[in-house]
Design goal:
alpha/beta; globular; UDP-N-acetylmuramoyl-L-alanine:D-glutamate ligase; 11 helices; 14 strands; about 350 residues
Length: about 350
Amino acid sequence: MTAHETLPTTERLLALIRGMAGQPVVLLVDLVADRFITGIPKRISREAPVLILSYQGEVLAPGGGANAVANVAALGGRPLPLGVVGDDPSGRELVAALAGLGVETGGILTRPGYRTPTKVRILGGGRHSIKQQIVRYDIEDHLTLTADDRRRFARQLAGWAGEAAPAMPPRVAILSDYGYGAVEPAFLPEVRAALGSAAILVGDSRYRLGELAGLDGATPNEEEAEALLGRTIEDDPGRLEAGGRSLLARLGARFLLITRGSRGMSLFAEAGTEDAGAAHLPVHGTDQVADVTGAGDTVIGTFALGLAAGATPLEAALLANYAGGVVVMKMGTATLSPAELARAVESDPRPLEELQWARS
């Protein structure tokens, strides 16, 4: 594979980061609360061979699709979320946390009797040391959208799409499906109809990406891609190339971004479109990461916000690659600022220099 003379530049990526400010992005998502409980080790229990922690504190962070919302907000975009929480402490805290980030929460519905999906992580360590995750338990529930829920989502979408200046109507949407029921494949046509034929819909699904017909692009990780293909990709360039193109055709999408952990990312775009071909991006930073929690949400949030700012899929993928490399060096469910993303782009030209791009 050879590089192309029109590869993106550092200056172009920095301009796109500045252009992200205020860009609206609709997010139809499964909202999850990430709760982190920290403690200081005391001793081994006499009751069972388990560690006893002295409770230190806890925090709740937006998780799952809510983390994609938080990442769009942190990068200066204007996230417009559609989702459901329960009438419970986690639901109320999650909505308050998003509101505290400046997120408009009018599209978030509260469902009585529904338990907000919550991932509770117990972390332990010395008073002044980095806390390590000891165990995690999940509070899970599943919902089915009612006809009234769908109507309320549709009205909210119509309101955003019909906004007059100075507000910008959204032209990019994220669908983040964690399997809890808020993201329905049948609702995709409603999203496209509300945002217009030129809208760009980007999706990610842990279990049923193949059912989300009508997406323009998707951002599966390598494991999810392999599950859809029914075979491994591993480190074989030929299998990766064939698998990426096969998935692109199967999904009927215009572009596909496969995240591959320490091996970076691979972007596939259909022939006849901008950035058509295959591009392989080396990872930003090192493969010695602190915490991968929520990195996929950062990737799709940055990728979609980049597209909203006018990036091509390749430019958006490069920005997402840099963003992912920054957040995996942070503990817990993390976001990054425009300044952090700009510093990453300025300080590390390697993803641009070692990018492999074969046009088609």
